[in-house]
TrEMBL record:
PANTHER family in the cross-refs: ELECTRON TRANSPORT PROTIN SCO1/SENC FAMILY MEMBER, THIOREDOXIN DOMAIN-CONTAINING PROTEIN
CDD domains for this protein: SCO
Acetylation recorded as keyword: no
Protein name per Swiss-Prot or TrEMBL: SCO family protein
Source organism (scientific name): Geomobilimonas luticola
Amino acid sequence: MGRQCGTGWHVARTFLASLLVLCAFLPVLAAAHTEDPFSGHDHAGMVSGPDDGAKVGLTERLGEKIPLDLTFRDETGKPVRLGDLVTVPTVILPVYYSCTNVCNFLQQGLASALPGVKRKPGEEYRVISVSFDETETPELAAKYKRMYLTSMNAPFPEEGWRFLTGDAESVRRLTAAAGYRFQRKGRDFIHPVASMVVAPDGTIVRYLYGTTFLPKDLTLALLEAREGKVGTTIRKVVGYCFTFDPEGKTYVFNLLRVSATVVILCTGGFLAFLLLTGRKNGRQ
């Protein structure tokens, strides 16, 4: 009997020593995974501070709201209130449709990533491209909508991605609220390469930079934007396992936190098993 107990505790000590060694190496493993292995963003965000006075750039205004009372024109030329579209978590892309450079890459990058987002477009989230060139027409918006939806090579509802145009005042109010500053240069524009994710009440919850999107980043940002509409358990799990890296502008798996939790749970479960087994043998 004593020999069995001694053997059991010897195994326990060996197991605990192994766990301590693993814990010692966890910070090293976490440091090696600080850069998300799935990230591939072009970080051309032109991010600037709130008081730098730059004419072109982006000042993040997380937690602030965009004006949902603004009226734009949709692809058919019909007036549409922004608040009637932002009824679900929404990705907003400030672009101009005649751009042959980064705006095209931005929207095409999103079109490539959207089929990998396992949520229902139009019902659980929406995408809105908004032209900041007040001279562009709904006909031009409709042309590019057809082009990007066709490029997906996957079913995507018309209501899931809207393409808007508007007057100078509506454009100015929307971009100002988002901290997005651009400047016309001849027929083109100098502008940041960024999009934003807003909650159904118009609150800005995340900025996404560059022309490359990851379905993981989009999905997590949309979950954040759900506010209270997704179960708090899901949001807590997402927040526990993933951390948004403001420098890398992507969601990073928190290896150290998750690994430590697994180690603690395994240790507690093994010790409980040993204690219960020892008591059972003692009674026998």
